[in-house]
Amino acid sequence: FPARCTAHRGPLLHCLADPGMAAEPEPGSTQWLEDGMLIVDGARIVACGPAANLLPRLHPDTRVLHWPERLLVPGFIDTHVHMPQLEIMASYGSQLLDWLNTYTFPAEARFDDPDWALAQANLFTDLLLAHGTTSALVFCTTHAQSAAATFHAAEQRGMAVAAGKCMMDRNAPEDLLDTAQSSYDDSLALLQRWHGRGRLRYAITPRFAPTSTAAQLTKVAQLAAEHPDVLVQTHWAESRSEIEWVRSLFPERADYLDVYQHHGLLGPGTVLAHGVHIDDHDRDRLVETGTRIAHCPTSNTFLGSGLFDLQAAKRCGVTLGLATDVGGGTSLSMLATMAEAYKVSQLRGQPLTPWQAFYLATLGNAEVLHQQQDTGSLTVGKMADFVVLDPASSPILRLKQQRAQSIDEQLFNLMMLGDDRAVAATYVAGQCRYRRPDTGSGPGP
Ligand code: GUN
Ligand code: ZN
């Protein structure tokens, strides 16, 4: 390996495939190296394996960063998060539809100010990195400039971000509404400007069925059909009152999913957030069309929406990922999100294994977003998006990790008790983009 490479040495953990739902991961689906090495040439990984094998192949001038007390893992991916909702996290006392009217829409209206939009987009991307998240599928506001600001901020940080301007032409305050035609025009202009620029991708973003007329959904479908490589994101079947409302707004449609299916919005490029209140008929239609679900556990518990049935979705073969849904969600940390997914599964009598949770937050989410060629694991040829985790980042984690008998236990401790304090450093495309301020131990970026 040429001298220009950088090597990161330390314990290393990633998934190579879906480990399944059983306590023991599928053979060959995970790789744990107690003394591993990741060799990075520019933005990409050129080697990943036991340090003992790779050390002799390094050029003597290669910079080696040694992280003996850390854990190298792939950068986390968040498959559903709202850039403009940071300030309404932890808003008290209401469920989805009231929460939207009381807190969300007023906060989103502030994004008609371009300075505010840019400041929030910068804060948002910095916070993603501080939580170890290097890729995300992001909702913005109705204002085109909120999406442009998000793309700007992500590009400056080298992140693989897909985002879109929210489309809504009814059932929201006047100053947040667009029209079927203007939402098409604005989305198209953003798509042409940003989609495929470096690591950025556009995502066509109708908010959800209640805030779009049938005319707007038709324009959404037209835009998606004209750009088949562009993602589509929306919300679906999150709360019971939302589902009732959709029934009254679209009486001619069989059910909520049929609203999207009828308008040609289902397919492998579509990510539906939530899908809490659904049945096997819904799951079959997701599988037949290749449509994906983003499971958002901290949001579903915080807003009192319901308990997602992860086991049923996996059993039916639905492609699904894990997401924070901030500001409905209560943390940007994918570790905290894994913990909440475990608790939601527990309430359904089905413990979620740390392997499946870790897979969902990394390689599983990469597959949901069709970016597994470049992200989600530390495999040779992928972009060097990785996180240096501190497995003993708090007194309780330190105590627990001293007693852990296996990597399974260590991972479960991290998932249940870890948060952004466990992120010692975040690398994006080989560059250090975040360094935890307080601790002096370990090498510099
Ligand atoms: N449904 C429609 N809009 C939203 C939103 O902003 N957050 C959540 N959690 N659900 C929604
Ligand atoms: Zn959402």
Features:
hydrolase; Guanine deaminase; zinc; binds guanine; 22% strand; globular; Urease, subunit C, domain 1; 445 residues
First-to-last CA distance: 20 Å
The hetero compounds bound to this protein are: guanine, zinc ion
**How many domains, in number, for the residues?**
2
CATH architecture of the largest domain: Alpha-Beta Barrel
Q: Number of helical runs?
A: 15
The helix/strand class is alpha/beta
Number of strand elements: 17
Q: Mean of the pLDDT scores?
A: 97
Beta-strand proportion: 15-25%
Instruction: Describe the largest sheet.
Output: 9 strands, parallel
CATH topology term of the largest domain? TIM Barrel
- So what's the overall shape? globular
Organism: Natronospirillum operosum
Protein name: Guanine deaminase
Function: Catalyzes the hydrolytic deamination of guanine, producing xanthine and ammonia.
Cofactor: Zn(2+)
In short:
This protein has 445 residues and is of the alpha/beta class. Helices cover 37% and strands 22% of the residues.
Verbal overview:
- By secondary structure, this protein is of the alpha/beta class.
- It folds into two domains: 6-75 and 377-435, Urease, subunit C, domain 1 (Roll); 76-332, Metal-dependent hydrolases (TIM Barrel, Alpha-Beta Barrel), CATH 3.20.20.
- Helices cover 37% and strands 22% of the residues.
- The protein is built from 15 helices and 17 strands.
- The strands form three sheets. Strands 6, 7, 8, 9, 10, 11, 12, 13 and 14 form a nine-stranded parallel sheet that branches.
- A hairpin with a 2-residue loop joins β16 and β17 (431-435).
- α3 packs across α4, α5 packs parallel to α6 and α14 packs antiparallel against α15 (407-417).
- The longest helix is centred in the first third of the chain and has 17 residues, at 114-130.
- The structure holds guanine and zinc ion.
